[in-house]
Amino acid sequence: GTPLFLVWNRLPRGWFGRERLMETTCFFLTAFFAGQAIFLGWFDAIFGPLAFGYWMFLFVVLAALRFGRHGVVLVIAMVAIQALLGAERGVGYFGADVAQTGLENFWCYLLVLTVTGIALALSFHVRKQAEDSQRIIEERLRVSQCYGGVGVWENDLVSNRQYWSEAVTTILGFPQAGQLAWESFIAAVHPDDRRLVTEAHRAHIEDGRPYDVDYRIVDRDGKTRWMRSAGRAERDADGKPVRMRGIVQDITSRKQAEESLRLATLAYDNSSEAMVVTDAGGTILTVNPAFTRTTGYAAEEAIGQNPRILSSGRHDGGFYRAMWESINTSGRWQGEIWNRRKDGEIYIEQLSINTIFNEDGAPWRRVAQFLDITQKKASEEQLWKQANFDNLTGLPNRRMFHDRLEQEIKKSHRANLPLGLLFLDLDRFKEVNDTLGHEAGDLLLQHAAQRLVGCVRDTDTVARLGGDEFTIILGELDSPENLERIARSILDGLAEPFHLGGELAFVSASIGITLYPADASDVEQLVKNADQAMYAAKHQGRNRYSYFTPSMQDAAQKRLRLANDMRYALAGQQFQVHYQPIVELASGAVYKAEALIRWNHPSRGLVSPAEFIPIAEDSGLINEIGDWVFRTAVQQVGRWRAMHHAAFQVGINKSPIQFKSPNGTHAAWGAHLQTLGLPGESLVVEITEGLLMDATGVADDKLLELRDAGIQVAIDDFGTGYSSLAYLKKFHIDYLKIDQSFTRNLAPDSNDLALCEAIIVMAHKLGLKVIAEGVETAAQRDLLVATGCDYAQGYLFARPMPPEMFDAWMKGQNA
């Protein structure tokens, strides 16, 4: 009873589950009926002498094997009860034991059965516990390998077999698990690392050097992963290695982290931006090499210091308070700041400060990045000056003048005071330029600008529009007398002789005056009024000023009539296109020409393009006229490519108005050339430098459309405008046309020759061809040939002529 009580104080597990219920029921019913047959004499007629008590040992063994201690003690208890009942009734296996031995046989039998059963049950229980423990250990090892990314491998050096655990396959991505040849393992290694693994393995076997190697594998998905293998060889009694055992671990994340750290370090050390890391209190912890290059402070000099060592003293306390308010509020600040290098030099930097916070939200580190933008600022300022100020005189240019005039109009409107605009042109300036040279002319313009500035108030604006034209904005005039006093002062100041390098020059000025708001209320009309008044002063004898009057509109009316006549000129076939040949200087060949428009007015005769082109631009007719010139010229170039030269090319002038007009028709030019079967390079569009400098987004797009169509672009009158090299790089230009003002006075050792040489060399370096305009003498031609100029045009070769005359001229050239 004691074993039964001790064992069955806990019920057995799993006996009555769905999987074992049938087995449990069948087994114990069979044991019960066997006990009945053996000890109570059931089925004697069937079994007879076979029903011996030793059969119960079989049930005890089966109970120990399948049902453990619970099953054994249950069978023994059932046997004890059945045997006692049989002995008491005198039947079964122990039927005579009471009379013969007083149940001694029964007790011996029961003792042997109990010891055997319990011993077997305990043995099986201990073994099962050991197996369960081993299984638990293995499962825990497998889980730890899975979660730790670690696998176990063994290399049998005698049979050359490689074994690795399941974790190596499932977690680390090796092709398969189990026993493989060493070559199968090497095949899984990345080709670039196989030699490394093989050499490390050989060195460990032969020399005993540690086997600990990092290498890559290509996993089942084709991805490259990093592994670390470490192991040790086991040797036999003779010291011969028989096997190696070790671990393999996925270190891909570690390698990626190391690579990221390495890249971050490289970026930190090689960044062009200076970097500083401080603690929360502002003490410098580390700096990169760019910091030293920018500030002059070595790392050991800066570490431990406060960034205040760079303070320039240019910013007040309010600036720094605003900076720290942003840093404390948002954790960052960005802006421009003046600082001081170690040698005392002041520089400006683009600075950004970011804060790194602890887990509790407290500042931990601050990272500052800055870039020295001193040169950039200087370049931007220089570009701004070039875009808004005249390079020669330093005065505001046309663009800045228009901006200033708009602002002054607004100020005058608010103050309810008149504004005066003076338009000034130097009289006889061309004579000075032609007789004393362009250098003297430039010097005269500089001196004239200084005198003009000296005649007005500091709040007034003097601007140079171009050439010898100046404008003066006199804002918020208290009385008209002040305006006249300034005008007389200007005339007197300019009448004084100009000392131009040993030469004296005398010029005067013609001044046109208009008032806002009496004469006009917008910038454009004010400028037109002042221009008209200036021409009136010239017509009155020069060296005087003239106010704008309504009578000056008569000239504008004449221009309007001419504009109206121009509207019928195209339909009346009054326009003609003449062509001036362009000669290749190296060979004398002619396969280029410039198309030039002429107007044969029915009543006025030939009208100069200088007279009607500005009117066409103002009226918007320039788009229609320009398109007609294009279509006429390309028809002609198609014939000449067939008659004279397969690569014949015609250049046409394109007005800036055509580029800036959103309704320009040039977008269809490329399609029209394709319709005629002509390539884009059969046409060159000539533009001015001013178009490049003042190009809006619309003009940019249209230049690109020409380039996409294959049409080439030339800059006409190069050197007389802004001559911005930056825009030569920005736009795809094919030709530079040197203005005739440079070739007119071309002579050996002259400044004009030096300028021409400089333009030609620069153009060739940029891959551009050069065309010289206005060549009238053989000496000019020879000098241009010597300088390497590509092409030339001018009266020396031929004047512009109609197509039929051009054909005859070409025949003479060919002859």
Could you please describe the fold and organization of this structure?
The protein has 815 residues and is an alpha+beta fold. Helix content is 49%, strand content 22%. It has 31 helices and 27 strands. The strands form 5 sheets. Strands 19-20-22-23-24-25-26-27 form an 8-stranded mixed beta barrel, surrounded by 4 helices. Strands 3-2-1-6-5-4 form a 6-stranded antiparallel beta sheet, with helices on both faces. It has a 5-stranded antiparallel beta sheet with strand order 8-7-11-10-9. Helix 2 (21-39) packs across helix 4, helix 4 (55-89) packs antiparallel against helix 6 (104-148) and helix 20 packs across helix 21 (609-619).
Which terms would index this structure?
alpha+beta; eight-stranded mixed beta barrel; six-stranded antiparallel β-sheet; 27 strands; about 20% strand
Give a brief description.
With 815 residues, the protein is of the alpha+beta class. The chain is built from 31 helices and 27 strands. Helix content is 49%, strand content 22%.
